[in-house]
Structure formats: structure tokens, C-alpha cells
Amino acid sequence: MCGMSESPEPVVAGAAPAPQQTACPFCAELIMATAKKCRHCGEMLDHALRAIEDLKRQPQQQQPMVFMNAGGGASSSSSAAVAAGVGSSVSTKSKAVAILLAIFLGGLGAHKFYLGRPVFGVIYLLLCWTPIPWVIGILEAITYIFTGRQKWAALYP
Ligand SMILES: [Zn+2]
Question: Could you give the CA distance from residue 54 to residue 137 in angstroms, rounded to a whole number?
């Protein structure tokens, strides 16, 4: 019975090529020549695997820096978005200029052209020989005076 149980081992050893053994360059223990990792000292023997191990170690040290940079970038971009939002609520058209144009050149539609309403400006120009656009211009100047900053920005971005 014992001979039966021992017999498979030599067969297996004979079937597989004789294992080439070599000394580990790190601990000098005998290991398989095809081994990629020494089972005695745990050192990686394969150059590619060693390079991968080194790469795995380096990012772990750099990760905090990367995260800090990412956080800084995110916060700066969000603050830029906030600034853009503030910029959109501030009109590029000066209310004072629009009021002055409406009072003094309102009959010519100058304030309409200035505020980006050229169609209205042309209508005012066509009616400039009548008092209508001049009166409307003065009335619009008054409405401009009482238009809030937010509404002004929404009307004339
Ligand atoms: Zn070793």
C-alpha cells in the first residue's frame, strides 16, 4: 500500500522537466530558476515585476500631493464658476450712459443701439422728426433710473 502511494511522485517528477534551481541573488537560498519571486526573502526576481513593484510604491508616496493639487484645481475652478456667475449678473452696459443717451439722443434711438436693441433704434430714427421717440426716450431714461442692478443685468447683459 505504501509503495502504491509513493509511486506517483517519481512519475510526476519525471514527466515535468527537472526543476532548475538557482541561488537567490538577494538571500542566496536555492530557489526555482523560473521563480519570479523568492520564497525565502520575498524579493522580486523578475525585472519587469520589480519595475511594477517600484511603480506601485512611488504613486503611494505621491498620491497626497496629487489629491492636494486636484483639490486646489477643483476649488479654483469652482471659484472661477462663481466669478462667472457674478459676471453674468453684472451688465456690461453702463446704466448712466444709457440714461444720458436716452435723454439727449433718445429721439435718435441712441440708447437702444447702445443697449443692443438696434431694431427699436431704427424705429426711433424713423420717427425722430416727431416728438414721439424723444418723449419715449425721456420716459425710458426715468425707467432706467429705477431699474435695479440685477434686473438691468438681466435685461442688458
Ligand atoms: Zn531570496
Answer: 76
